[in-house]
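Tokenise the fold.
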Amino acid sequence: MEFDANVQALKCPNCGTEVDIENDPTSIVEHNLDIHAMRKIKVEEKTSTSMECEGCGAHVEVDKTSTATTCPYCGSHYVLSRKQLDSIVPDGVIPFKIDKNKVESIFTNWIKGRWLAPNVLKTLYQKDKIQGIYMPYWTFDANTRTHYTAMGGINHRVEYEDENGEKKVRIETRWYPTSGNINHFFDDILVSASNKLDEILLIGVQPSSTRNIVSYSPDYMSGYCAEIYTVDLKDAHNEAIAKMNRRLRSKAESDVLRRYDCVRALRLNTSYSDETYKHIFVPVYSTAYTYKDKRYNVLINGETGEIRGEYPKSIAKITAIIVLILGILFGIYMSASEDEVAYNYKSPENQYMTSVGEYDISR
């Protein structure tokens, strides 16, 4: 049986029998974040197989009964028995909501919209090469208390005379010291636990929230695979703190701008408490294709269908667009030149009538 994204259950592809997957929300645990947790995360027994791709080094989690598969990142074929690794069992998972048939339509529409891509690229989609893979993520929660100091500026209009005696206006800013406090709770700050894919692509398809997390079951991996985390908890926590700091800085700036026109020299002093973390899987469809000896990746969010991808640009199409734009600009220039010549030219009759008209108006 395989996990069916449409019915959210295990389903037999032959007879259509469905089996529900148990969801226990109480098992989605937020773990206390301490020094011991960041140094070592306990490896638990699991019913799946972990291996490393010999092509690109990605760590992939697959069903224990599988004997071979295709890497979703580089397209390499490998045998699972060559290397096996251990990993932790995730605390929760966001299941796939989109099946491969829908993915084919999403990819086709996306590639048709890449009008700078070579035409041959539109025929490169191969349904059997696109992989449904659960990407590993860390999530972090924290209570924060922030005291900030800054300089708030108030703008004033000042009139002055320039060197020629003409009156002008300039804006001058008067700066005043200010401070304030911000209390904020951060819930499920997402940090990718994989460093195998382009960060910009991954951010583009990562979930906007974790409200659809269900308790983990290996049944969700039936028919799919999952990557083992390659970013440890300590490094992920540092990135989460950086994200929190950026948001707190934005909140502090907004707080100052409620009273002032501008802000500078902003300094934050933040304390963190009640920090927790969990490890989750996020559904992503991934494919890799090669065009003229260069590899490109496309990612699709397996829950929302959001797509991000890399693709080559056709030099011929870019050149044609540039030529077309230059042609349009040249046509506009020539048209404007002809209009100017026609406007400046006057026949003797027109000159006479104009001079008479001017004379009559002056009288």
About this structure: The longest strand covers residues 131-161.
